Amino acid sequence: MNNIRTYILLAGSLFALASCNDFLDTIPDDRTEIDSEQKITNILVSAYPEVSTILISELASDNAKDNGALYDIYGQIQRDAYLWNDMTSEDTDAPKYIWDAHYNAICSANQALHAIELMGNPENLNPQKGEALLCRAYAHFQLANLFCMPYNPQTADQELGIPYTTVPETEVMPDGIERGTLSQMYENINRDIEEGLPLISSEAYDIPLYHFNQNAAYAFAAQFNLFYNKFDKAIRYATEAIGEDPSSVLRNMGGYAQFPSSMEYTLAYISSDEPANLMLQQTMSWWGSNYKSAYRYGHSREICEKQTIWSKGPYGSLKVYETVLGYGDQSIFVPKMDQFKEIANAITGSYYGRQVAFAFTTDKTLLNRAEAYVLSKQYDKAVNDLQYWYRIKAATKVPDKDELNLFYETVDPTTNGKPLDPKFALEAGLQTNLLKAVIHARRIET
To answer: 201 in the Ramachandran plot: left (φ > 0), alpha (ψ -120 to 50) or beta?
Structure first.
């Protein structure tokens, strides 16, 4: 009987091993064999990070104020972001989730590029190849802005970057993955952008607004090159995205005051018919409800009146921001990112927070170009771009170069006259003052 049991066990083990081998020899699903144009197109949907860096970035910025211990916090992540504490939370908006989600997006881009290479790089897949390259560059760039030092050409080869992954991962924590330097990382991002840009085709998408269409790709290239201190390229790419005269594609907010609810305002802001929207991202985030409930740490009336949408400027006032929403003096906001709900359990009513984030817009690209003009000392063109922005925001006055220079030379340093101390050469007087004008406008815009 003992021998019989032994034989049965051995037979069972051999059968199990054979079954196991059969199982391991079987492709589990089509994600491991991407061998058609449609499969490559499908996987690129997941090459965009499904997270937002907005919550922690905004609360860690000067746009938030501690309104005092009388007010509750909406969550620990709010306090940690505001105080610049180490964040141990694994909340949707926390650094760990941001890191993982961006590398998941990079993984999808690499898988698509690998599949295209195995298929012989056919011309009909050029749009997908271009999109994958731009997605890979974008995800690395987003992580660099959060986890690395700002790019400085004098020190970039001494600062640490993040791992720049270019091949599909086949094992957990493979050997040979190194952070490299910030300089190397920016070189990699630049190489992917330059290779990908000529391949992008807006006609490849049913809904171009959620992909790297041509205008969005050029807007990204402009922003990257501004950060990369390549100002001529930033100007050239921004112009490709919005044209020399962007008047017809900037966001006209003249009718936004009519919307009775924040959701209607948001839906108008993210409309596919809005020419200012170059690329939108659907993300998992609680920012859409947090910014309305940020009572302890929020965009307060004081900041609003002294530094942002209601602050004094050389333009008088911006009429498009006269009517916004607020919950008391602790939280005043432009409701362009209201919370969407994805039902998790219909019985309990639990849900995930979602928002649509603005990856690239014409207005932001215009201000990136204005900054590049300032830093390359093309002051008249910089002023011209700022004037486009003042007009579309229904400014009560459109200042000229001398008025901008005088205002930011004499403005209260506790408001929008804060001293600038960049790691690159910046001349006192006109250049510094026009840069302050651009920063002031961008702070309001974003």
So the answer is: beta
As a three-state string, the secondary structure of 236-297 is HHHHHHHCCCCHHHCCCCCCHHHCCCHHHHHHHHCCCCCCCEEEEEEEECCHHHHCCCCCCE
Q: Helix, strand or coil for residue 298?
A: strand
Assess contact for 162 and 148: CB atoms under 8 A: yes
This prediction has a pTM of 0.90
- For 394-430, give one letter per residue: b (16+ CB within 10 A) or e: bbeeebebeebbebbeebeeebbbeeeeeeeeeeeeb
CB 397 within 8 A of CB 315: yes
> What is the Cβ-side half-sphere exposure of residue 185, based on CA atoms within 13 angstroms?
32
Q: For residues 235 and 216, what is the distance between their CA atoms, to the nearest angstrom? A: 15
Widest pairwise Cα distance in the chain: 103
Q: CB–CB of 337/291 below 8 Å?
A: yes
pLDDT digits (tens, 9 = 90+) for 230-273: 999 999 999 999 999 999 999 999 888 888 888 999 999 999 99
Using alpha carbons only, give the angle 17, 22, 27 rounded to the nearest 5 degrees.
Answer: 140
Q: Which are the contacts of 174, defined by CB distance < 8 A and separation ≥ 6?
A: none
In one letter, which amino acid is 151?
A: Y
- What one-letter code names the amino acid at 244? E
Q: pLDDT of 333-363, one tens digit each?
A: 888 989 898 888 888 888 888 999 999 999 9
Q: What are phi and psi for residue 424, nearest 5 degrees? A: -135, 165
Q: How far apart are CA 372 and CA 1, in angstroms?
A: 86
